[in-house]
Amino acid sequence: MRPLSLALPLAATLLFACTEGAAQNQSATEASAEKPFDIATVGEFEGPWAMAFLPNGKILVTQKMGAMVLFDPKSGGKQVLSGTPGVVSAGQGSLMDVVLAPDFARSRKIYFSFSDAGEGKTNGVALATATLDEPGSALRDVKVIFRGQPYLESGAHYSGRILFSPDNKYLFFTNGERAKGSPAQDPSSTLGKVLRRNLDGTPAKGNPLAAKGFHPAIWSYGHRNLTGIAFDRDGRLWEVEMGPLGGDEINLIKPGLNYGWPKASNGSNYDKSDIPDHDPSDGFVPPKVFWNPSLAPAALAYYDAPLFPAWRGSLFVPGLSGMALARVSLNGETASKADHWAMGMRIRSVRVGPDGALWLLEDSPKGKMLRLTPKK
């Protein structure tokens, strides 16, 4: 395991991690609807990033500085797990996503991502597996199965979202372009890409661009900071990413296609210089939905549960600088903005719980876990 490095005090690192949204200094302008849900605070964590629901009702929560916590929402009890690897927590670095393996009930295996120290001052995103021991006190057999390439001197745009294919045969992983732009178009780099891999981390056979000389794991390219991916009920793959100054995107991901970054965007550079907007003649896939001004999307969840029947077939997107929760309605390959609720806080994560409720994590040094249920 790599040693803890480049660590800063939590408040400072969270502040740095927020600079992208703060630099945009914009919040979404859509009118916020009256909230059709009640909000309950379930717990509080130190810079929470992602969560995964266990079959026994407990929840794994990752935290920015590198801790993974096993949380019991009924009792409020917390167990910090031993065995997590060192994390580069400066900037947007963090212990990031966590998901259960498809066979978790038998294997107790999990997958997680983190910002990993490289040679010198370089760093990158790593994907790892581990076994959660039976008492729920430690991670065993931690193994890094993939490292995004190349590692760079950058504290931004790691991405690191993990998703299994509907048939559980493949693993999709997002690798941000590390705020460098051009790697998103580099066929030899995994940066700025959606990747499709086998469950052991090796590139999956049949990926669409391997025969053209691309890195063999690449599924799609031309992305910026890919903060969420989700399959809908019909197996379509949706992705959300942060744009620069405006231009946050929801994309329908199809194999082998180029989504344009940094050559096309509906946003502008931070110095307000122009980036060509998506155009039908540019050869790039345009977004299905975009926000300008920015929402600063941090995650993506597909909702298809009965608790909120009117929301079935929707995507949910939490905002950082936008401090909101947005609902996007899907109709086949069409997506449209539906609801936008001001939350009064930066939201880092959204998941659909086993109970059908929406669960959120606040992006804060003392970040709340929130449970959203139908308004009584």
Summarize the structure.
With 376 residues, this protein is mainly beta. It has helices at 10-17, 19-24, 104-107; strands spanning 37-45, 48-53, 59-63, 68-71, 78-80, 95-100, 109-117, 123-132, 139-147, 159-164, 170-175, 193-198, 218-221, 225-231, 237-242, 248-253, 289-291, 301-303, 314-318, 324-331, 334-342, 347-352, 358-362, 367-374.
Descriptive keywords:
four-stranded antiparallel β-sheet, mainly beta, Neuraminidase, 3 helices, 376 residues
Instruction: Indicate the radius of gyration in whole angstroms.
Output: 19 Å
What is the CA-CA span between the terminal residues? 49 Å
Total domains: 1
Here the CATH topology equals Neuraminidase
CATH architecture: 6 Propeller
Strand order of the largest sheet: 1-24-23-22
Q: How many helical elements?
A: 3
CATH class: Mainly Beta
Count of distinct strands: 24
Q: Outline, from the CA principal axes?
A: globular
Helix-strand sequence: HHEEEEEEHEEEEEEEEEEEEEEEEEE
Mean pLDDT: 93
User: Largest sheet, described in full?
Assistant: 4 strands, antiparallel
